[in-house]
Design a protein that fits this description.
Number of helices of chain A: 8
Order of helices and strands of chain A: HHHHHHHH
Largest sheet of chain A: none
Number of strands of chain A: 0
Oligomer: homotrimer
Radius of gyration of chain A: 17 Å
Largest interface: A-C, 32 and 33 residues
Protein backbone atom coordinates (compact mmCIF):
# COMPACT_ATOMS: atom_id res chain seq x y z
CA UNK A 1 0.00 0.00 0.00
CA UNK A 2 2.60 2.50 1.10
CA UNK A 3 6.13 1.21 0.66
CA UNK A 4 7.51 4.17 -1.23
CA UNK A 5 10.03 5.93 0.89
CA UNK A 6 9.65 9.67 1.07
CA UNK A 7 13.11 10.55 2.30
CA UNK A 8 12.42 13.63 4.41
CA UNK A 9 9.51 12.03 6.16
CA UNK A 10 11.54 8.91 6.81
CA UNK A 11 14.42 10.93 8.27
CA UNK A 12 12.02 12.86 10.46
CA UNK A 13 10.48 9.62 11.63
CA UNK A 14 13.91 8.24 12.51
CA UNK A 15 14.84 11.46 14.32
CA UNK A 16 11.64 11.80 16.33
CA UNK A 17 11.60 8.08 17.13
CA UNK A 18 15.20 8.27 18.25
CA UNK A 19 14.69 11.34 20.44
CA UNK A 20 11.63 9.93 22.18
CA UNK A 21 13.59 6.73 22.82
CA UNK A 22 16.50 8.81 24.14
CA UNK A 23 14.28 10.66 26.60
CA UNK A 24 12.67 7.44 27.83
CA UNK A 25 15.90 5.55 28.32
CA UNK A 26 17.56 8.58 29.95
CA UNK A 27 14.68 8.58 32.42
CA UNK A 28 15.22 4.88 33.15
CA UNK A 29 18.95 5.44 33.70
CA UNK A 30 18.35 8.49 35.87
CA UNK A 31 15.83 6.57 37.99
CA UNK A 32 18.37 3.82 38.62
CA UNK A 33 21.01 6.42 39.52
CA UNK A 34 18.68 8.23 41.93
CA UNK A 35 17.94 4.89 43.60
CA UNK A 36 21.71 4.42 44.09
CA UNK A 37 21.88 7.87 45.78
CA UNK A 38 24.15 9.33 43.09
CA UNK A 39 24.23 13.11 42.93
CA UNK A 40 22.92 15.39 40.20
CA UNK A 41 25.87 14.94 37.84
CA UNK A 42 26.06 11.20 38.38
CA UNK A 43 22.36 11.02 37.57
CA UNK A 44 22.87 13.03 34.38
CA UNK A 45 25.82 10.87 33.33
CA UNK A 46 24.05 7.54 33.90
CA UNK A 47 21.03 8.94 32.07
CA UNK A 48 23.26 10.00 29.18
CA UNK A 49 24.89 6.57 28.94
CA UNK A 50 21.60 4.66 29.28
CA UNK A 51 20.03 6.81 26.55
CA UNK A 52 22.93 7.02 24.13
CA UNK A 53 25.16 4.01 24.88
CA UNK A 54 23.23 1.69 22.57
CA UNK A 55 23.27 4.21 19.72
CA UNK A 56 26.98 4.99 20.18
CA UNK A 57 27.76 1.26 19.97
CA UNK A 58 25.53 0.99 16.87
CA UNK A 59 27.23 3.91 15.14
CA UNK A 60 30.71 2.60 15.98
CA UNK A 61 30.02 -0.84 14.50
CA UNK A 62 28.45 0.56 11.33
CA UNK A 63 31.30 3.06 10.94
CA UNK A 64 29.14 6.18 11.32
CA UNK A 65 31.62 8.43 13.14
CA UNK A 66 31.28 10.65 15.03
CA UNK A 67 28.22 8.85 16.45
CA UNK A 68 24.96 10.79 16.31
CA UNK A 69 25.14 11.27 20.10
CA UNK A 70 28.10 13.58 19.48
CA UNK A 71 27.31 14.85 15.98
CA UNK A 72 23.80 16.14 16.76
CA UNK A 73 23.46 18.21 19.93
CA UNK A 74 19.75 17.43 20.23
CA UNK A 75 20.53 13.91 21.42
CA UNK A 76 22.74 14.89 24.36
CA UNK A 77 20.50 17.78 25.36
CA UNK A 78 17.40 15.55 25.31
CA UNK A 79 19.14 12.94 27.44
CA UNK A 80 20.40 15.46 30.00
CA UNK A 81 17.09 17.33 30.27
CA UNK A 82 15.18 14.06 30.77
CA UNK A 83 17.69 12.99 33.45
CA UNK A 84 17.42 16.29 35.32
CA UNK A 85 13.63 16.12 35.13
CA UNK A 86 13.74 12.70 36.81
CA UNK A 87 16.14 14.04 39.45
CA UNK A 88 13.60 16.69 40.51
CA UNK A 89 10.39 14.77 39.88
CA UNK A 90 11.31 11.25 40.96
CA UNK A 91 9.01 11.05 44.03
CA UNK A 92 6.08 11.59 41.69
CA UNK A 93 7.57 9.02 39.29
CA UNK A 94 7.16 6.26 41.84
CA UNK A 95 3.44 6.73 41.52
CA UNK A 96 3.94 6.59 37.76
CA UNK A 97 5.63 3.19 37.69
CA UNK A 98 3.22 1.89 35.08
CA UNK A 99 3.90 4.90 32.90
CA UNK A 100 7.65 4.31 33.13
CA UNK A 101 7.25 0.67 32.06
CA UNK A 102 5.03 1.78 29.18
CA UNK A 103 7.58 4.36 28.05
CA UNK A 104 10.42 1.87 28.38
CA UNK A 105 8.52 -0.54 26.13
CA UNK A 106 8.00 2.30 23.65
CA UNK A 107 11.74 3.05 23.74
CA UNK A 108 12.45 -0.62 23.07
CA UNK A 109 10.22 -0.57 20.00
CA UNK A 110 11.61 2.70 18.67
CA UNK A 111 15.31 1.86 19.15
CA UNK A 112 14.90 -1.60 17.65
CA UNK A 113 13.34 -0.13 14.50
CA UNK A 114 15.79 2.75 14.06
CA UNK A 115 18.84 0.62 14.97
CA UNK A 116 17.97 -2.15 12.52
CA UNK A 117 17.14 0.27 9.70
CA UNK A 118 20.39 2.20 10.15
CA UNK A 119 22.44 -1.01 10.10
CA UNK A 120 20.69 -2.22 6.92
CA UNK A 121 21.15 1.21 5.30
CA UNK A 122 24.88 1.00 6.13
CA UNK A 123 25.09 -2.27 4.17
CA UNK A 124 25.32 -4.69 7.10
CA UNK A 125 23.96 -8.15 6.09
CA UNK A 126 20.59 -9.21 7.59
CA UNK A 127 21.82 -11.38 10.50
CA UNK A 128 24.26 -8.71 11.62
CA UNK A 129 21.69 -5.95 11.21
CA UNK A 130 19.25 -7.84 13.45
CA UNK A 131 21.93 -8.22 16.13
CA UNK A 132 22.83 -4.53 15.86
CA UNK A 133 19.15 -3.56 16.12
CA UNK A 134 18.80 -5.66 19.26
CA UNK A 135 22.04 -4.31 20.78
CA UNK A 136 20.94 -0.72 20.03
CA UNK A 137 17.78 -1.38 22.03
CA UNK A 138 19.38 -3.19 24.98
CA UNK A 139 22.88 -1.61 25.01
CA UNK A 140 21.94 1.45 27.02
CA UNK A 141 20.24 -0.63 29.71
CA UNK A 142 23.27 -2.91 29.88
CA UNK A 143 25.58 0.07 30.38
CA UNK A 144 23.21 1.59 32.97
CA UNK A 145 23.29 -1.61 35.03
CA UNK A 146 27.07 -2.01 34.76
CA UNK A 147 27.59 1.61 35.91
CA UNK A 148 25.30 1.14 38.90
CA UNK A 149 26.90 -2.15 39.91
CA UNK A 150 24.10 -4.54 38.97
CA UNK A 151 24.05 -7.70 36.86
CA UNK A 152 22.21 -6.43 33.76
CA UNK A 153 18.49 -6.93 34.19
CA UNK A 154 18.19 -7.68 30.48
CA UNK A 155 20.12 -10.92 31.06
CA UNK A 156 17.56 -12.03 33.61
CA UNK A 157 14.29 -10.54 32.39
CA UNK A 158 14.69 -12.24 29.06
CA UNK A 159 11.42 -11.41 27.42
CA UNK A 160 13.09 -8.08 26.76
CA UNK A 161 16.09 -8.87 24.56
CA UNK A 162 14.22 -11.54 22.65
CA UNK A 163 11.40 -9.11 21.86
CA UNK A 164 13.99 -6.73 20.46
CA UNK A 165 15.56 -9.50 18.40
CA UNK A 166 12.18 -10.64 17.08
CA UNK A 167 11.33 -7.03 16.25
CA UNK A 168 14.62 -6.57 14.41
CA UNK A 169 13.88 -9.67 12.31
CA UNK A 170 10.40 -8.30 11.54
CA UNK A 171 11.88 -4.95 10.47
CA UNK A 172 14.43 -6.70 8.24
CA UNK A 173 11.73 -8.77 6.53
CA UNK A 174 9.46 -5.75 6.09
CA UNK A 175 12.26 -3.81 4.45
CA UNK A 176 13.11 -6.76 2.22
CA UNK A 177 9.56 -6.83 0.85
CA UNK A 178 9.45 -3.08 0.36
CA UNK A 179 7.50 -2.00 3.44
CA UNK A 180 10.12 0.46 4.66
CA UNK A 181 8.12 3.71 4.70
CA UNK A 182 7.41 5.63 7.92
CA UNK A 183 3.92 4.17 8.22
CA UNK A 184 4.87 0.48 8.21
CA UNK A 185 7.90 1.14 10.39
CA UNK A 186 5.81 3.02 12.96
CA UNK A 187 3.49 0.03 12.93
CA UNK A 188 6.51 -2.23 13.53
CA UNK A 189 7.54 -0.15 16.54
CA UNK A 190 3.99 -0.36 17.90
CA UNK A 191 3.99 -4.15 17.44
CA UNK A 192 7.30 -4.54 19.30
CA UNK A 193 6.08 -2.26 22.09
CA UNK A 194 2.82 -4.20 22.31
CA UNK A 195 4.62 -7.53 22.47
CA UNK A 196 6.82 -6.25 25.29
CA UNK A 197 3.78 -5.02 27.23
CA UNK A 198 2.03 -8.34 26.65
CA UNK A 199 5.12 -10.17 27.96
CA UNK A 200 5.06 -7.95 31.06
CA UNK A 201 1.32 -8.40 31.59
CA UNK A 202 1.35 -12.17 31.11
CA UNK A 203 4.65 -12.53 33.05
CA UNK A 204 6.18 -14.57 30.26
CA UNK A 205 9.59 -15.95 31.14
CA UNK A 206 12.22 -18.18 29.60
CA UNK A 207 13.56 -21.49 30.92
CA UNK A 208 16.48 -21.66 33.34
CA UNK A 209 18.97 -24.51 33.01
CA UNK A 210 18.23 -27.53 35.20
CA UNK A 211 20.91 -27.76 37.92
CA UNK B 1 60.81 -23.71 4.97
CA UNK B 2 57.26 -22.67 4.24
CA UNK B 3 56.77 -18.95 4.54
CA UNK B 4 55.02 -18.37 1.25
CA UNK B 5 51.49 -17.31 1.94
CA UNK B 6 48.85 -19.07 -0.13
CA UNK B 7 46.03 -16.60 0.36
CA UNK B 8 43.00 -18.91 0.26
CA UNK B 9 44.53 -21.38 2.64
CA UNK B 10 45.54 -18.60 4.98
CA UNK B 11 42.03 -17.12 4.94
CA UNK B 12 40.52 -20.54 5.61
CA UNK B 13 42.93 -21.03 8.47
CA UNK B 14 41.95 -17.67 9.97
CA UNK B 15 38.24 -18.47 9.54
CA UNK B 16 38.35 -21.98 11.00
CA UNK B 17 40.63 -20.86 13.83
CA UNK B 18 38.31 -17.98 14.59
CA UNK B 19 35.15 -20.11 14.58
CA UNK B 20 36.63 -22.78 16.86
CA UNK B 21 37.73 -20.01 19.23
CA UNK B 22 34.24 -18.49 19.05
CA UNK B 23 32.58 -21.79 19.99
CA UNK B 24 34.98 -22.35 22.88
CA UNK B 25 34.65 -18.90 24.36
CA UNK B 26 30.87 -18.95 23.88
CA UNK B 27 30.84 -22.15 25.92
CA UNK B 28 32.90 -20.50 28.67
CA UNK B 29 30.54 -17.52 28.76
CA UNK B 30 27.46 -19.72 28.72
CA UNK B 31 28.84 -21.81 31.60
CA UNK B 32 29.38 -18.68 33.69
CA UNK B 33 25.84 -17.51 32.87
CA UNK B 34 24.30 -20.87 33.78
CA UNK B 35 26.17 -20.73 37.10
CA UNK B 36 24.56 -17.32 37.75
CA UNK B 37 21.11 -18.84 37.09
CA UNK B 38 20.46 -16.65 34.04
CA UNK B 39 17.76 -17.93 31.70
CA UNK B 40 18.14 -19.23 28.15
CA UNK B 41 18.41 -15.83 26.50
CA UNK B 42 20.73 -14.43 29.13
CA UNK B 43 22.95 -17.47 28.61
CA UNK B 44 22.94 -16.93 24.83
CA UNK B 45 23.73 -13.24 25.22
CA UNK B 46 26.63 -13.75 27.65
CA UNK B 47 27.93 -16.51 25.37
CA UNK B 48 27.71 -14.16 22.39
CA UNK B 49 29.59 -11.38 24.19
CA UNK B 50 32.25 -13.72 25.60
CA UNK B 51 32.84 -15.21 22.14
CA UNK B 52 32.68 -12.08 20.04
CA UNK B 53 33.46 -9.17 22.38
CA UNK B 54 37.22 -9.47 21.87
CA UNK B 55 36.88 -9.63 18.09
CA UNK B 56 34.43 -6.71 17.97
CA UNK B 57 36.88 -4.59 19.97
CA UNK B 58 39.70 -5.70 17.64
CA UNK B 59 37.75 -4.81 14.51
CA UNK B 60 36.71 -1.43 15.91
CA UNK B 61 40.28 -0.41 16.74
CA UNK B 62 41.65 -1.52 13.36
CA UNK B 63 38.79 0.20 11.55
CA UNK B 64 37.27 -2.99 10.06
CA UNK B 65 33.58 -2.04 10.20
CA UNK B 66 31.14 -3.62 10.44
CA UNK B 67 33.05 -6.07 12.68
CA UNK B 68 33.16 -9.67 11.47
CA UNK B 69 30.75 -10.65 14.24
CA UNK B 70 28.08 -8.68 12.38
CA UNK B 71 29.36 -8.96 8.79
CA UNK B 72 29.57 -12.77 8.70
CA UNK B 73 26.54 -14.63 10.07
CA UNK B 74 28.59 -17.76 10.81
CA UNK B 75 30.19 -16.05 13.82
CA UNK B 76 26.95 -15.19 15.61
CA UNK B 77 25.31 -18.51 14.74
CA UNK B 78 28.33 -20.46 16.03
CA UNK B 79 28.33 -18.48 19.29
CA UNK B 80 24.60 -18.91 19.87
CA UNK B 81 24.57 -22.64 19.03
CA UNK B 82 27.52 -23.30 21.36
CA UNK B 83 25.77 -21.34 24.14
CA UNK B 84 22.50 -23.25 23.72
CA UNK B 85 24.42 -26.54 23.71
CA UNK B 86 25.96 -25.62 27.06
CA UNK B 87 22.54 -24.63 28.39
CA UNK B 88 21.17 -28.12 27.72
CA UNK B 89 24.32 -30.15 28.36
CA UNK B 90 25.88 -28.33 31.29
CA UNK B 91 25.45 -31.10 33.91
CA UNK B 92 27.58 -33.30 31.69
CA UNK B 93 30.04 -30.44 31.25
CA UNK B 94 30.88 -30.45 34.95
CA UNK B 95 32.37 -33.87 34.43
CA UNK B 96 34.22 -32.42 31.46
CA UNK B 97 35.94 -29.64 33.39
CA UNK B 98 39.35 -30.66 32.07
CA UNK B 99 38.03 -30.60 28.52
CA UNK B 100 36.67 -27.08 29.02
CA UNK B 101 40.03 -25.84 30.31
CA UNK B 102 41.74 -27.47 27.35
CA UNK B 103 39.34 -25.87 24.89
CA UNK B 104 39.70 -22.49 26.60
CA UNK B 105 43.47 -22.74 26.21
CA UNK B 106 42.98 -23.60 22.53
CA UNK B 107 40.72 -20.55 22.13
CA UNK B 108 43.40 -18.40 23.75
CA UNK B 109 45.98 -19.63 21.25
CA UNK B 110 43.71 -19.23 18.23
CA UNK B 111 42.41 -15.75 19.07
CA UNK B 112 45.90 -14.47 19.90
CA UNK B 113 47.19 -15.59 16.50
CA UNK B 114 44.24 -14.36 14.42
CA UNK B 115 43.95 -11.08 16.36
CA UNK B 116 47.63 -10.23 16.03
CA UNK B 117 47.74 -11.14 12.32
CA UNK B 118 44.66 -9.05 11.54
CA UNK B 119 46.10 -6.03 13.35
CA UNK B 120 49.43 -6.36 11.51
CA UNK B 121 47.60 -6.78 8.18
CA UNK B 122 45.67 -3.59 8.93
CA UNK B 123 48.96 -1.71 9.25
CA UNK B 124 49.08 -1.35 13.04
CA UNK B 125 52.71 -1.02 14.27
CA UNK B 126 54.19 -4.03 16.14
CA UNK B 127 53.68 -2.89 19.75
CA UNK B 128 50.07 -1.95 19.08
CA UNK B 129 49.42 -5.18 17.16
CA UNK B 130 50.69 -7.24 20.11
CA UNK B 131 48.37 -5.37 22.47
CA UNK B 132 45.44 -5.84 20.08
CA UNK B 133 46.22 -9.56 19.76
CA UNK B 134 46.24 -9.90 23.55
CA UNK B 135 43.02 -7.89 23.95
CA UNK B 136 41.31 -10.00 21.25
CA UNK B 137 42.14 -13.09 23.28
CA UNK B 138 41.19 -11.75 26.73
CA UNK B 139 38.47 -9.20 25.80
CA UNK B 140 35.62 -11.68 25.66
CA UNK B 141 36.46 -13.12 29.06
CA UNK B 142 36.67 -9.60 30.50
CA UNK B 143 33.22 -8.75 29.16
CA UNK B 144 31.82 -12.09 30.39
CA UNK B 145 32.99 -11.37 33.93
CA UNK B 146 31.74 -7.76 33.90
CA UNK B 147 28.28 -8.92 32.71
CA UNK B 148 28.06 -11.55 35.43
CA UNK B 149 29.20 -9.18 38.17
CA UNK B 150 32.67 -10.56 38.83
CA UNK B 151 36.10 -8.92 38.97
CA UNK B 152 37.63 -10.25 35.73
CA UNK B 153 39.44 -13.50 36.40
CA UNK B 154 42.06 -12.55 33.84
CA UNK B 155 43.23 -9.78 36.18
CA UNK B 156 43.83 -12.31 38.92
CA UNK B 157 44.85 -15.50 37.11
CA UNK B 158 47.65 -13.64 35.37
CA UNK B 159 49.38 -16.48 33.59
CA UNK B 160 46.57 -16.04 31.13
CA UNK B 161 46.96 -12.50 29.75
CA UNK B 162 50.74 -12.70 29.79
CA UNK B 163 50.66 -15.92 27.75
CA UNK B 164 48.52 -14.11 25.18
CA UNK B 165 50.92 -11.16 25.13
CA UNK B 166 53.94 -13.44 24.76
CA UNK B 167 52.15 -15.32 21.99
CA UNK B 168 51.34 -12.08 20.19
CA UNK B 169 55.00 -11.07 20.33
CA UNK B 170 55.98 -14.47 18.92
CA UNK B 171 53.47 -14.12 16.07
CA UNK B 172 54.77 -10.62 15.28
CA UNK B 173 58.38 -11.84 15.12
CA UNK B 174 57.43 -14.88 13.01
CA UNK B 175 55.64 -12.65 10.53
CA UNK B 176 58.56 -10.23 10.46
CA UNK B 177 60.93 -13.03 9.42
CA UNK B 178 58.50 -14.38 6.81
CA UNK B 179 56.97 -17.30 8.70
CA UNK B 180 53.40 -16.17 8.20
CA UNK B 181 51.90 -19.17 6.35
CA UNK B 182 49.14 -21.32 7.84
CA UNK B 183 51.58 -23.99 9.01
CA UNK B 184 53.85 -21.81 11.13
CA UNK B 185 50.87 -19.89 12.48
CA UNK B 186 49.08 -23.09 13.48
CA UNK B 187 52.30 -24.06 15.25
CA UNK B 188 52.27 -20.68 17.02
CA UNK B 189 48.70 -21.30 18.22
CA UNK B 190 49.73 -24.73 19.50
CA UNK B 191 52.70 -23.22 21.35
CA UNK B 192 50.52 -20.60 23.05
CA UNK B 193 47.95 -23.25 23.97
CA UNK B 194 50.68 -25.50 25.34
CA UNK B 195 52.19 -22.70 27.42
CA UNK B 196 48.79 -21.92 28.91
CA UNK B 197 48.25 -25.59 29.79
CA UNK B 198 51.72 -25.79 31.31
CA UNK B 199 50.97 -22.70 33.40
CA UNK B 200 47.75 -24.34 34.61
CA UNK B 201 49.45 -27.65 35.33
CA UNK B 202 52.41 -26.12 37.16
CA UNK B 203 50.17 -23.53 38.90
CA UNK B 204 52.47 -20.70 37.84
CA UNK B 205 51.46 -17.38 39.32
CA UNK B 206 52.73 -13.82 39.35
CA UNK B 207 53.81 -11.75 42.34
CA UNK B 208 51.35 -9.69 44.35
CA UNK B 209 52.49 -6.33 45.73
CA UNK B 210 53.85 -6.42 49.27
CA UNK B 211 51.39 -4.65 51.59
CA UNK C 1 48.01 38.13 21.57
CA UNK C 2 49.29 34.71 20.63
CA UNK C 3 46.71 32.71 18.75
CA UNK C 4 48.89 31.71 15.81
CA UNK C 5 49.38 27.98 15.88
CA UNK C 6 52.93 26.78 15.31
CA UNK C 7 52.16 23.21 14.30
CA UNK C 8 55.21 21.40 15.64
CA UNK C 9 55.03 23.10 18.98
CA UNK C 10 51.33 22.36 19.21
CA UNK C 11 51.85 18.70 18.38
CA UNK C 12 54.60 18.45 20.96
CA UNK C 13 52.36 20.07 23.52
CA UNK C 14 49.59 17.59 22.78
CA UNK C 15 52.02 14.67 22.97
CA UNK C 16 53.73 15.68 26.21
CA UNK C 17 50.40 16.60 27.80
CA UNK C 18 48.95 13.28 26.76
CA UNK C 19 51.90 11.24 28.04
CA UNK C 20 51.96 12.96 31.43
CA UNK C 21 48.23 12.34 31.72
CA UNK C 22 48.77 8.70 30.72
CA UNK C 23 51.39 8.18 33.44
CA UNK C 24 49.21 9.80 36.09
CA UNK C 25 46.07 7.87 35.25
CA UNK C 26 48.03 4.62 34.94
CA UNK C 27 49.28 5.25 38.47
CA UNK C 28 45.72 5.78 39.70
CA UNK C 29 44.57 2.55 38.04
CA UNK C 30 47.54 0.61 39.35
CA UNK C 31 46.91 1.89 42.89
CA UNK C 32 43.30 0.68 42.73
CA UNK C 33 44.46 -2.70 41.42
CA UNK C 34 47.10 -3.07 44.16
CA UNK C 35 44.41 -2.30 46.75
CA UNK C 36 42.31 -5.13 45.27
CA UNK C 37 45.29 -7.52 45.67
CA UNK C 38 45.62 -8.12 41.94
CA UNK C 39 48.98 -9.46 40.82
CA UNK C 40 51.62 -7.75 38.70
CA UNK C 41 49.94 -8.35 35.35
CA UNK C 42 46.50 -7.45 36.64
CA UNK C 43 47.99 -4.22 37.98
CA UNK C 44 49.60 -3.47 34.60
CA UNK C 45 46.36 -4.21 32.75
CA UNK C 46 44.16 -2.04 34.98
CA UNK C 47 46.80 0.71 34.74
CA UNK C 48 46.77 0.41 30.95
CA UNK C 49 42.98 0.62 30.75
CA UNK C 50 42.74 3.49 33.24
CA UNK C 51 45.40 5.44 31.33
CA UNK C 52 44.32 4.69 27.77
CA UNK C 53 40.63 3.73 27.96
CA UNK C 54 39.43 7.34 27.69
CA UNK C 55 41.70 8.05 24.72
CA UNK C 56 40.74 4.81 22.94
CA UNK C 57 37.06 5.73 23.29
CA UNK C 58 37.84 9.26 22.03
CA UNK C 59 39.72 7.96 18.97
CA UNK C 60 36.99 5.43 18.16
CA UNK C 61 34.23 8.06 18.19
CA UNK C 62 36.21 10.54 16.09
CA UNK C 63 37.20 7.79 13.64
CA UNK C 64 40.95 7.98 14.30
CA UNK C 65 41.85 4.29 13.91
CA UNK C 66 43.96 2.62 15.06
CA UNK C 67 43.69 4.68 18.29
CA UNK C 68 46.88 6.42 19.42
CA UNK C 69 47.19 3.91 22.27
CA UNK C 70 47.94 1.26 19.62
CA UNK C 71 49.47 3.42 16.88
CA UNK C 72 52.18 5.03 19.03
CA UNK C 73 54.15 2.66 21.26
CA UNK C 74 55.11 5.45 23.68
CA UNK C 75 51.58 5.50 25.10
CA UNK C 76 51.44 1.83 26.08
CA UNK C 77 55.02 1.80 27.35
CA UNK C 78 54.41 4.88 29.50
CA UNK C 79 51.26 3.33 30.97
CA UNK C 80 52.91 0.00 31.75
CA UNK C 81 56.06 1.56 33.27
CA UNK C 82 54.00 3.83 35.50
CA UNK C 83 51.89 0.86 36.61
CA UNK C 84 54.93 -1.26 37.45
CA UNK C 85 56.46 1.66 39.34
CA UNK C 86 53.34 1.86 41.50
CA UNK C 87 53.44 -1.90 42.03
CA UNK C 88 56.92 -1.67 43.58
CA UNK C 89 56.65 1.73 45.23
CA UNK C 90 53.08 1.73 46.51
CA UNK C 91 53.88 1.70 50.26
CA UNK C 92 55.71 4.96 49.74
CA UNK C 93 52.80 6.25 47.65
CA UNK C 94 50.47 6.06 50.62
CA UNK C 95 52.55 8.78 52.20
CA UNK C 96 52.26 10.66 48.91
CA UNK C 97 48.47 10.71 48.85
CA UNK C 98 48.39 14.47 48.34
CA UNK C 99 50.81 14.16 45.43
CA UNK C 100 48.62 11.53 43.79
CA UNK C 101 45.54 13.76 44.07
CA UNK C 102 47.53 16.66 42.61
CA UNK C 103 48.73 14.52 39.69
CA UNK C 104 45.24 13.17 39.11
CA UNK C 105 43.95 16.74 38.87
CA UNK C 106 46.74 17.52 36.42
CA UNK C 107 45.75 14.50 34.34
CA UNK C 108 42.15 15.69 34.35
CA UNK C 109 43.23 19.09 33.01
CA UNK C 110 45.53 17.66 30.37
CA UNK C 111 43.14 15.01 29.02
CA UNK C 112 40.24 17.45 28.90
CA UNK C 113 42.29 19.87 26.79
CA UNK C 114 43.79 17.31 24.41
CA UNK C 115 40.52 15.34 24.08
CA UNK C 116 38.46 18.42 23.26
CA UNK C 117 41.03 19.77 20.78
CA UNK C 118 41.29 16.46 18.97
CA UNK C 119 37.51 16.17 18.65
CA UNK C 120 37.24 19.75 17.31
CA UNK C 121 40.13 19.09 14.88
CA UNK C 122 38.26 15.99 13.64
CA UNK C 123 35.28 18.18 12.76
CA UNK C 124 32.97 17.21 15.64
CA UNK C 125 30.47 20.03 16.40
CA UNK C 126 31.01 21.99 19.66
CA UNK C 127 28.50 20.22 21.93
CA UNK C 128 29.78 16.80 20.87
CA UNK C 129 33.41 17.89 21.21
CA UNK C 130 32.79 19.05 24.79
CA UNK C 131 31.22 15.69 25.64
CA UNK C 132 34.12 13.84 24.02
CA UNK C 133 36.62 15.99 25.92
CA UNK C 134 34.87 15.17 29.19
CA UNK C 135 34.62 11.45 28.38
CA UNK C 136 38.33 11.36 27.45
CA UNK C 137 39.13 12.71 30.89
CA UNK C 138 36.75 10.51 32.90
CA UNK C 139 36.59 7.37 30.68
CA UNK C 140 39.73 5.76 32.03
CA UNK C 141 38.61 6.19 35.63
CA UNK C 142 35.21 4.73 34.75
CA UNK C 143 36.83 1.66 33.19
CA UNK C 144 39.21 1.31 36.16
CA UNK C 145 36.29 1.21 38.60
CA UNK C 146 34.27 -1.23 36.48
CA UNK C 147 37.26 -3.60 36.24
CA UNK C 148 37.84 -3.52 39.98
CA UNK C 149 34.16 -4.06 40.80
CA UNK C 150 33.28 -0.59 42.10
CA UNK C 151 30.48 1.82 41.22
CA UNK C 152 32.48 4.49 39.35
CA UNK C 153 33.68 7.14 41.79
CA UNK C 154 33.19 9.80 39.12
CA UNK C 155 29.43 9.25 39.38
CA UNK C 156 29.55 10.01 43.08
CA UNK C 157 32.37 12.56 43.44
CA UNK C 158 30.68 14.83 40.98
CA UNK C 159 32.92 17.86 41.13
CA UNK C 160 35.15 15.81 38.88
CA UNK C 161 33.13 15.20 35.71
CA UNK C 162 31.58 18.66 35.81
CA UNK C 163 35.02 20.29 36.06
CA UNK C 164 36.03 18.34 32.95
CA UNK C 165 32.85 19.43 31.15
CA UNK C 166 33.37 23.06 32.15
CA UNK C 167 36.98 22.83 31.00
CA UNK C 168 35.95 21.36 27.67
CA UNK C 169 33.52 24.26 27.15
CA UNK C 170 36.30 26.73 27.99
CA UNK C 171 38.65 25.06 25.50
CA UNK C 172 35.97 25.15 22.80
CA UNK C 173 35.33 28.87 23.35
CA UNK C 174 39.07 29.66 23.41
CA UNK C 175 39.54 27.86 20.12
CA UNK C 176 36.55 29.61 18.60
CA UNK C 177 38.08 33.04 19.38
CA UNK C 178 41.50 32.00 18.07
CA UNK C 179 43.31 31.23 21.35
CA UNK C 180 44.35 27.73 20.31
CA UNK C 181 48.15 27.97 20.60
CA UNK C 182 50.14 25.91 23.10
CA UNK C 183 50.36 28.81 25.55
CA UNK C 184 46.65 29.48 25.97
CA UNK C 185 45.88 25.77 25.99
CA UNK C 186 48.45 25.09 28.71
CA UNK C 187 46.79 27.89 30.65
CA UNK C 188 43.43 26.16 30.12
CA UNK C 189 44.81 22.91 31.51
CA UNK C 190 46.17 24.77 34.54
CA UNK C 191 42.78 26.41 35.11
CA UNK C 192 40.94 23.08 34.98
CA UNK C 193 43.52 21.50 37.32
CA UNK C 194 43.21 24.44 39.71
CA UNK C 195 39.43 24.25 39.73
CA UNK C 196 39.57 20.55 40.52
CA UNK C 197 42.00 21.17 43.40
CA UNK C 198 39.80 23.98 44.69
CA UNK C 199 36.79 21.63 44.59
CA UNK C 200 38.78 19.07 46.59
CA UNK C 201 40.02 21.63 49.09
CA UNK C 202 36.63 23.26 49.62
CA UNK C 203 34.84 19.86 49.54
CA UNK C 204 32.33 21.11 47.00
CA UNK C 205 29.61 18.63 46.29
CA UNK C 206 26.45 18.44 44.22
CA UNK C 207 22.88 17.91 45.43
CA UNK C 208 21.43 14.44 45.91
CA UNK C 209 17.78 13.87 45.05
CA UNK C 210 15.38 14.20 47.98
CA UNK C 211 13.98 10.76 48.82
Amino acid sequence: MQGDLRVDEALNFLLVGDLVGVAVFAASGASAAVAKRLDLFGVALVGFVAALGGGILRDLVIGAVPPLAFADWRYAVTAVLASIAVFWLHPQLNRLRRTVLLLDAAGLGLFTVTGTLKALDAGVPPVGACLIGMLTAIGGGLARDLLTGEIPVVLQRDIYAIVALGGAILVTIMREIGLSGPGPMALGAVLITGLRLLALYRRWSAPIAVP
